[in-house]
Amino acid sequence: MTACCETCRDWLGVVRVHDDCPVRASAWCSQCGCYGHRPRDCEAGVVWTRPATLEELIAPELRARWAIGTRTPIAWRGAPATVESAEREISELNTIEIQYRKGTGRDSKLDARLREFMRQNRLDTTHSCDANLAKLRRWAVSQGKKIRLVPE
Question: Is the per-residue pLDDT at 107 higher than 60?
């Protein structure tokens, strides 16, 4: 007997029973360019880079359909100066959400959740919650992702 599809339940909030999930099969990852998973679940380790040409901003299907073969360079004015500016350039699809219990002082679980996430990803922690968050944001940008803190 086939169990409830985890993808349909988690992504859509519906209970479905099937062997090959059409929802998962239709999900396209903008990190590695493959179907079958979302960018936030990508394990390909593709490092985010800025597009080098305007044509890279057009979906591959549209470039093929309209026979777009030009390569118009983008004249960037240097690398993003700050983590904040780099995060603005990263797609919302490439967001790592960290949920925590909102509160003040010792009631807040943000520090514990950050440390747990950092441990899972083999990142060294510091004694300060703010320093851990800054370190985690820099790491995420280097992976082509950004961090979003979600209070429960």
Answer: no
